[in-house]
């Protein structure tokens, strides 16, 4: 019993010694670990503390720019200089198989958030735990650290460049066309076109510059919209009848060139159902560059020379063809004075920004306008379509003059011109009021009569400036006195007598 007790006591002492030894070993190990960790921490701290807080670590890049050892301000300048070196790189704005070159400089390209990027470069390896900082800095010995950059452009400049260089590359839709060949109609096919969507193209270019540009020449496909033709060949297959026509004598002189040019611009026009046609819009601009010359025109009761003078005969002739086709006239005005090529109330004046001739196609199918000037200077307009008027239906138009006012002729002194001089001002045209009747016939019988328009034409009075200047006072007085009589024969006789006194 005593032996067992003694043995147990010895065992407990042994276990106690073992526990004490293990504790000492554990403390020693922990102390060693702490010392080693502290040494490592100190070593890492010594390593990372050598890095200048104000300067960027070695082997750090912002995009293509090596900013190693730079301050934030120096990095910003370096990145901008790099971009400047590539300012002449070209971005090709593609419009189908065509392209427009635009330089990076022209677009006003800049590095986006450059201060933020430079700040990130300066802070690399200087934030976080000592271990993470050490890893970042140590890794720079083997591999460069690149901060991706993005670019922004001046949207206003880019939009302007697209408008100037890319939009002209658009392919406009081509409408189907028709022409009368004497027995039928020759038709051409339509073709789709495409236009540049400027807003979406700007967005696409900005996205490319922001995410993909790498300082090299590049291409960007612009956003295009399909443009559908408004007139299809199938639409024109309904053409079969002459709806109305009219002819006038184009006369002579330079005005004929203007008449011919305006007729060319209108010839071949297709007007779709419900569409309004404007002679002014079809024939503008009235400039020499558009083929017009100076010709006779009315202005303030006078006949003057004006670029495009004579165009009113085109609108007038077309007006009468429109009347016979029974299209809906939406705008028409008479001349200020009557014209020689049609009866009163059958005219239609054109004056840019003031007066226009317009009509609407009130048929259910397209109409075709053809115009020409033949070898005898006859100006004609023909309107074709699908005639839905009843068989035996026809119309005529009658001009009725309601009142006429004769022009006056007045003789006045011209003290600056010599005796014998007579200068005439004014066209010498009577004024009038008139109206135009539309007379409808069915199978040759008149069934209705209605007023289409009422027109007023002013007079163009004549003023004759009679010269009275002479070194002979008696001669001057003789002519001055007879001017008061307003008698042309007496004035002419006085001039002859005064001329003998000079």
From TrEMBL:
| TM stretches of this protein | 21-48
Keywords, sorted A to Z: Membrane, Signal, Transmembrane, Transmembrane helix
Organism of this sequence: Coprococcus comes
Upper classification of the organism: Bacteria, Bacillati, Bacillota, Clostridia, Lachnospirales
Q: Which residues form the G5 domain?
A: 391-470
Which Pfam families has this protein been placed in?
G5 (PF07501), PG_binding_4 (PF12229), VanW (PF04294)
| Protein name as catalogued | G5 domain-containing protein
Q: Which InterPro entries match?
A: G5_dom, Glycopeptide_resist_protein, Vancomycin_resist_VanW, YoaR-like_PG-bd
Q: Which Gene3D superfamilies match?
A: Resuscitation-promoting factor rpfb
Domain of life per record: Bacteria
